[in-house]
Amino acid sequence: MNIQENISLKAYNTFGIDKKARFFTRVHSNEEVIKALKTAKDKYVPAYILGGGSNILLTKDLFALVVKIDIKGVQVLKEDGENIWVKVGAGEIWHDFVLKAIAHKWAGIENLSLIPGTVGASPMQNIGAYGVEIKEVFEELEAVNRETLSVEKFNHSQCQFGYRESIFKNKAKDKYVITHVTFKLSKKPHFNISYGSISNTLKKMGYNQHDLTIEAISKAVIHIRQEKLPDPQEIGNAGSFFKNPTIPEKHFQTLKEEYPDIPGFPLEKGVKIPAAWLIDKAGWKGKTFGEIGVHKNQPLVLVNYGKGEGEAIKALSEKIQKDIQAKFGISLQPEVNFV
C-alpha cells in the first residue's frame, strides 16, 4: 500500500477546495481498508474516509491519513423472474453504475441518474431524487468496523434510513467504512415520472406512454439536472447544500397567508418545503461574494468560482440559515458535511 505525504485534496472534492492531507492512500479491497486503518493507528493519526468528495466542504488541512475508497466491481449475486441482486464496490462512481444498470435493463435507479459521488456514499446519505430513494432498492451492505477491524453486514432495517440519512450519519457515524453495497433491482420496471418536471421533459423529448423506457427516464433526469445544476468540472459545488425542511401543517398555513405562492408537499407528519424556494424568496439567488456565491439558476447550490475557501462557504451557509430562520421561522439543515 502506497502512503503519500502532504497531498493536495483539490482534485478529490467537487468544491475544488485546496486543502492538504498529511497522509494519503488508496484502497481496493476490504483487506486494504483494514491495513489502512491499522496504518493510521501506527502513525497516531485519525483515518479519514474519502469517497467521491461530492458531499464534503473542506475548511482546513487534514492532519490524518486520508483513505480514498477505490473498491470496484459489479457482481450479479442471484436473480429470479422479477428481480436481480447486484453487489457493487463502494468506489464505483454512482452514475456509472446507473448507466450500467440501464444498459442491462435493471430498473429502479434510473431516476437517480447523474447524482455525483460513489456507490459507498449512496446508503450513507440515502440519496434520492425525483421521487426515488436508495432505501427502495437497497438489500444490504458490507462495512469494516473501525474499532474491531472486522467485516460486518447491515440489512435494510439495521441501516435505519431516513430523509438523506442513515445510521451511518447518526449512531454509527465514523464507526464503519462501507466497502460493498448490494441492490435489489427489477427486471420489470415501474416507471416513476410523476415527480417534478420529468413527465413534461419526456414529452418535449418526444417520448409518450407507449415507448417509455428506463433509458428515456434517465435521459430526462440528466437533461433536467444539467439545466438546473452547475457541472462541478466547471464550477466548484457539492450539489444541493441544504435539505428540504419539513414544518408543521399549522406553520405552513400561517406562511401561506403571507406568501400565497409558497409550495408545500404534504407528508404523514407536516409539510415539506423546497429549500430552494425559501433561499430564492429571501433574495440570495445569484449573489456573489468574491470567489464564492449562490448559483444563479439554482439557489440550493453554493459555489466556488475558483479560489474560494471552505471557511468562507461555510460562513455564507450560516448567514443564509440565519436569514431563513428570521424570515420564515424555518431551520435549514446542511446536506453537505463540514470537514
Automatic annotation (TrEMBL):
EC numbers: 1.3.1.98
Domain FAD-binding PCMH-type: 16-188
Domain of life per record: Bacteria
Subcellular location, principal: cytoplasm
Pathway: Cell wall biogenesis; peptidoglycan biosynthesis
Active site location: 164, 240 (proton donor), 335
InterPro entries: FAD-bd_PCMH (IPR016166), FAD-bd_PCMH-like_sf (IPR036318), FAD-bd_PCMH_sub1 (IPR016167), FAD-bd_PCMH_sub2 (IPR016169), MurB (IPR003170), MurB_C (IPR011601), MurB_C_sf (IPR036635), Oxid_FAD_bind_N (IPR006094)
Known cofactor(s): FAD
Pfam families to which the protein is assigned, alphabetical: FAD_binding_4, MurB_C
Catalysed reactions, as listed in the record: UDP-N-acetyl-alpha-D-muramate + NADP(+) = UDP-N-acetyl-3-O-(1-carboxyvinyl)-alpha-D-glucosamine + NADPH + H(+)
UniProt-annotated location(s): Cytoplasm
GO molecular function terms noted in the UniProt entry: UDP-N-acetylmuramate dehydrogenase activity
NCBIfam families in the cross-refs: murB, PRK00046.1, PRK13903.1
Family, similarity comment: Belongs to the MurB family.
Listed HAMAP family: MurB
Protein name: UDP-N-acetylenolpyruvoylglucosamine reductase
